[in-house]
Amino acid sequence: MKLRKRGYVGTTSTEMSQREKDNAILAREAAAEGFVLLKNEAQTLPLKPGTKIGLYGAGAVRTIKGGTGSGDVNNRYNVNIYDGLKNAGFEITSGDWLDGYDSGYMQARESWKAEIFRKLKEECNGNFFEAYSTTPFSMPAGEPVDAEAAKADGAEVGIYVLARIAGENADRRDEPGDYYITEEERAQIAALCEAYEKVILVVNTGGLIDLAFTDEFSNITAILQFVQAGQEGGNALADVISGKVTPSGKMTDTWALDYMDYPNAAYFSHKSGDVYREEYREGIYVGYRYFDTFDVPVRYSFGYGLSYTDFDIKVTDVSKKISSKGRPSFSVSVDVTNIGATYSGKEVVQVYVSCPQGKLHKEFRRLTAFEKTKLLAPGETQSLELITDLYHLASYSEEQAAWMLEEGIYGIWIGNSLSEAVLCGRFRLNEDKILVQCEHICPLKEKLEEVQPDKEKLEEKQNAWIQEANKEQLPYFRIWAENLPTATIIYQELQDHYPGRAGEIVDQLSTDELIALATGDPAKDQGASALGSAGQTVPGAAAETVNVAEKDPYNVASIVLADGPAGLRLRSEYQVREDGSIDGGDFLDGFENGYFAEPKEPTGTVYHQYCTAIPVGTLLAQSWNLDLMKKLGQMIAGEMNEFEVTLWLAPGMSLHRNPLCGRNFEYYSEDPLLAGMMASAMTLGVQSVPGCGTTIKHYACNNQEDNRMGSDSILSERTLREIYLKGFEIAICNAQPMAMMTSYNLINGVHAANSYDICTKAARDEWGFEGAIMTDWTTTTDSTAGECTAAGCMKAGNDMVMPGDIRDHASIRQALEDGSLDIRELKRCVYHTVKIILQSNQYEDAVSYEDQFK
Ligand code: BGC
């Protein structure tokens, strides 16, 4: 295997490359495909280009492209909504207000910066990241809107862009300015509604916000869930506003009527007053599983989204089948027709299943399959077959430590949202069946009261649909438990040797070399190990692995890891000094494109590394488009190759448990199947390119950002498996990501990073994970993390301690010496790491990771 020679990555040219131009087109397409049209009355949308628009709100000119922290991308430009609408030929009548907004914004940014530096000194002991992340920037509302002037401006419609910023290491607050609108914003919206008959609300926030105010203003005739759309957001919005693109996004979360309607609203994170213990008392009833089961009315249901056209979904067949992977399944075949007269559009067909309420209580319905149509012209029909693997209907029995299907009648629902789904068939399973026999993992150390639905009420609901199905004589089939296979998991023993070239290398390495390979490269860190700073060969990359085994005969490359998920996170520029060494800038250059750093004179030749800022995870998932995700993955991998990055620290796929989680924007959904499918598609895309891999994260139960390193997620094994591990399981089984990253938090008293159950039993033994596992950054060295050690990672099967610190080396060496760590445990970890490194794009003959599993 021949190692590739590393050069300086990026370009000295300031011209936009063809790759940048091509990728901008895809970023724009992806954004437009994910926006959800929540409301469209009085034929508000689309608007003809040329229409005069009164445009207001913080996000109009300072459109937020994504969240802060490691999920931020240092890209070349952002098209704001103001420019996007102008580019599309709309006439904006509120130019003065928008220009005025900008100067107020700049002042607010400067005060914010000053506050961060004050905190840095006075409260945060010099820890910039702490000061920065716990002081989220609050978008100023701007000047009041003059309703009289607006009335007279000749605009036919008003647009108000509500904007919020969030990021890692801090949860959001259910307060005005965050979850709620402020009085200033309310007054502006009221003025807009006074001035214009039709007002479009654009929601430019990473997570959900309160929309109850929209009920008070009947002139808000359209609402668009824009989320945060990457560098082409403004153009993409204009595409939808103008009707060039028909909206086809669907909600990946339930939008409640009131924050307090979320089942964990009162005790989530800081709300309980205790950020150390997080009791998952809602159990499996997360998101729509709660609202649908407990009959709590919602504002917009899971899976919901409007179009400019209408579709008819006709069920043509419901029957059992064996899937192409040879798995027992059932399929629903549909003909989807665009029955509108004017607009082409795409529809998302969703299958939900009601499982029998047996010994285990269950959610009323769960998503089991979905498909998006191609672009259908008016009158055009597409036939789709949606296949549900029966395993996705299983529930986890704690009593039996097994995934099982319970006997009874299963109802099959189909629709273009959960709220619109109709029953289309059912089947009977003759008796209980264990599909997978496991062992227990992550035991609860204390009693936890979980919410339970009213069994009688649920049975009534169940009987009602069964009767309806009988009356309608809906398709019916039987499944015989004896025809379904049972798998029994074999949990691995420690091995003396491992197979293949990686196994041979590990056998020959010295203990020191093994220890070095168990962590990222501390020499590259130089004390700046927070996000986006520990890579030097490719400035702005998050870390690199060591080169101790790069020599012959091992040829184990040092590989580069860079963040995501909204693109590839590198510094936008660096310099090469006269002696050929790289000046990647200092720590502060890594944040917000260097906004906090003092301007410096160039010390050498400037290299640019412009990567594409794509929409945030939630917006991507709202597309429900797996092909699009795959294409985006390929696009990102192209940039990874250009910048010599092997592992992308993305996609993020933790579950949306509560809308206040500061990092929800990076993640996909409240539903594990949807999250798992999206991560699979993204991974398949990235890994179809030789030498590139994804790192699915944060595994697992990373649902809160306040005290993220010290918070303990306390939950039942069933909830853990059915809700919080499920998406990871799906991504691994479908796509074999090259890597995964553990989360900072503890799970039932054990750090995820140090949990053998999480890293080895679940990921490897149960799901067959073949790649390498790594810690999140500084999990083992940050004092707020408490007892989480590098040696503990090796024991758990957490292969790479990141970004790497000499204290980690000491921890592993000490544990080997005192016998608490077996050298075979260390070798097992290094084997996993070497195995993926050998597949890296650092070799001239890299083969796509995907191909190796064909
Ligand atoms: C984040 C990770 C990220 C890492 C490296 C951490 O703060 O939690 O998601 O990949 O930094 O930048």
Which secondary structure elements does this structure contain, and how are they paired or packed?
Blueprint: H1 18-34, E1 36-40, E2 52-56, H2 58-61, H3 81-87, E3 91-92, H4 95-122, H5 128-133, H6 147-151, E4 157-164, H7 183-195, E5 199-205, E6 220-225, H8 233-241, E7 255-256, E8 277-279, H9 288-293, E9 298-300, E10 311-322, E11 328-338, E12 348-354, E13 366-372, E14 381-389, E15 395-397, E16 402-405, E17 408-415, E18 422-429, E19 433-437, H10 455-472, E20 476-479, E21 487-488, H11 500-508, H12 511-517, E22 543-544, E23 560-563, E24 573-576, E25 582-583, E26 605-608, H13 617-621, H14 626-642, E27 647-649, H15 672-687, E28 693-699, E29 712-714, H16 717-735, E30 739-742, E31 746-747, E32 750-751, H17 756-766, E33 772-774, H18 790-796, H19 806-817, H20 823-837, H21 849-852
Parallel strand pairs: 2-3, 2-4, 4-5, 5-6, 8-29, 18-20, 19-21, 23-27, 27-28, 28-30, 29-31, 30-33
Antiparallel strand pairs: 1-6, 7-9, 10-11, 11-14, 12-13, 12-17, 15-16, 16-19, 17-18, 22-23, 24-25, 24-26, 31-32
Helix pairs in contact: 1-8, 1-14, 3-8, 11-20, 12-20, 14-15, 15-16, 18-19
Keywords: Hydrolase
InterPro entries: Cellulose_deg_GH3, Fn3-like, GH, Glyco_hydro_3_C, Glyco_hydro_3_C_sf, Glyco_hydro_3_N, Glyco_hydro_3_N_sf, Ig-like_fold
Family: Belongs to the glycosyl hydrolase 3 family.
